[in-house]
Amino acid sequence: MTGAVRKLSISVPPDVAERLEREPNASAFLVHAARALMRREALDAELAHQGVAVTEEGVARARAARAAVDVDWPAERYQAIRERVRQAATDGEGVTAA
C-alpha cells in the first residue's frame, strides 16, 4: 500500500479472524481482497451497461464448464499455457496501447 491510507477498526467473525491472523500483513490481504471485489463489481456494471445480464444460472453453467476443463486438462497443459501467456506478455504480443 502506498499513498494516503485511513486506519479502520473492523469486527469480523471468528473464522475470518483466524484466517487474517495467518497473514503476515492482514491490511494488505484485505486491500487485495477488496480491490478484487471492486474489479468484479466494475465488470458486472460494464456488462450490464453493454446489455449482458449475469445470472446465477449462467454463472453455474460457466463454473460447470470450467470444472469439466479442469478434469480433462492435466497440470502440465495448464503450465504450458501459463508459460505461453507469460512469454506473450514479456514479448508484448497482443498488447495494444490505450
Model description:
The chain has 98 residues and is mostly helical. Helix content is 67%, strand content 0%. The longest helix is centred in the middle third of the chain and has 24 residues, at 26-49. The mean pLDDT is 90.
SSE topology:
Layout: H1 14-21, H2 26-49, H3 56-72, H4 75-91
Structure summarized in a few sentences:
The protein is mainly alpha-helical and 98 residues long.
Average pLDDT over all residues: 90
Q: Helices and strands, in N-to-C order?
A: HHHH
Proportion of strand residues: under 5%
Cα-based radius of gyration, to the nearest Å: 19 Å
**Cα end-to-end separation:** 26 Å
Please give the largest β-sheet. none
How many separate helices? 4
Q: Which bin fits the share of residues in helices?
A: 55-70%
What is the number of E strands?
Answer: 0
Low-confidence stretches: none
The computed structural class is mainly alpha
Overall spatial form: extended
Features:
98 residues, mainly alpha, 67% helix, 4 helices, extended
